[in-house]
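DM from R.C. (forwarded with permission)

"hey, sorry to bug you on a friday — could you get me a structure for this? deadline for the figure draft is monday and I only need the backbone to look sensible"
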Amino acid sequence: MAADEAVDQECVEGYLFARSPTRFLLFRRPPKRGRIWVPVSGKVDAKDPDLPSALRRELAEETGLTELRALDPLNWSVRFEGPDGRRWRLHAFGVEVAATSVPRLSREHDAFAWLEPAAARQRLYYSDNQAALDRLMERLTEESEQASTALAHPTSHFPPQAIVLPTVGEPLFAALREGHHTKVVLQVPAGLVRNAHDLAAAIRDAVGVPVVVASRACFGACDFPSPSETPGADALVVLGHAPIPNVPLDRTTYFVEMRDPGGDPTALAERVRDAGVPRRLGIVASVQHLDLLGPFVTALEALGYTVRLGTGDRRLQYAAQALGCNYTTAESVAADVDAFLFLGTGRFHPLGLAFAVEKPVWSLDPLRGEIELPVDRGQLVRRRQLLVAKTRGARRWGILVSTLAGQNRNPTALVLQARARARGLDAEVFVSDRIDPRDLEGRDVEAYVNTACPRIALDDSDLYPRPVLTVPEFLMAIGETPLEPYRFDTYH
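My reply, with the result:
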């Protein structure tokens, strides 16, 4: 079967493992299915926005395990033809769970076992399962060797570290001096570009190493400058952002979160009460204002509020934290609240939160003490649904992929391409680091689906020469999912 040939059914399989020591969790099929030992596997449904989401669903259904430490593609797949002639493709993932995990058996399996690598390989029935397990073991062995190298050479910068500091000052300078770097890159958000050269000079004077300023602003911990953009630099200083735990670093990175607990908690709580915000309240905050949450929640509870702070998935560093691409902290408590309050400045996060949850979203600027009325989610969603409806006749699609480490969803793009081709549509993948509308001008494409930062489609769609949809919206446009309920493209 040709490498680019479309298939009738995409599938996923997960090889569950725990570390220290490495053990694998396998499952046995019941007698009517051969009593063979297998990983968790299943079909990708039309409602699944991408392969990882499909596997998370299968894991929850077949094992009851939802607390995953990591879910990483093995960049390995196998194609096969079923007895009915349908063409299938199976994508393999490594899934790290706690060593104490106890799965719940479903009708798919009648037994499970934790096994050492050699025993697990021997027990697996299919040779392609064994090959995937071999690939995962190679990766785990390489990671173990890298960790051993780092321990043996503690002064080296391998593997890259994430070093978190609250503000700019002597602690940052001391950490940089201790790192013995040869060249430092400074990247700042758009709101601080005017001050970037002053900070670069301060670092250069305090640390005594060359400092260069990244010319493009940083919109998050997902779009750092690449080594090719900043040759020779072995350290990166990023202002205004927290680490994203599942985004790999290519060099030691100093996250200066610019924490500011400013604002009187009691006065802010009274401002919320006077504005008529519902009493069962979920709160999310930008990283700069997370230190205010404790006293602010206490003040709200003194006024009779019931406050919930959620915990997000592995893309989020802190509880109650908001990311423009991920509001799982809010989604985790949405059933228990009547409204959400965003604690921070600007409209970027409240708008994203309104797309993600079907509850009123208020926003409170803790520095100015100003509160804004709820975002009109209905209007936002109707606008997006209208755009989806306009693209339903499109025959030529462009699928946008970013190579930035924190935004790269190439496997998702390939799945979407296969789904489009299966419906007789023309779909090509376009790859770049940062998605730029100028690069898409003049192309023979009727519409785009964006797999990079979801906010590109939601916030900047008007800048593009053709309509730009999110991944769930694309599935709506080609008729695989309905317009309702509207789903936010959460990036995991």
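R.C.: lifesaver. The CA atoms of residues 358 and 377 lie 8 Å apart.
me: no worries. Residues 265-375 form a domain with the Rossmann fold fold (CATH 3.40.50.11850).
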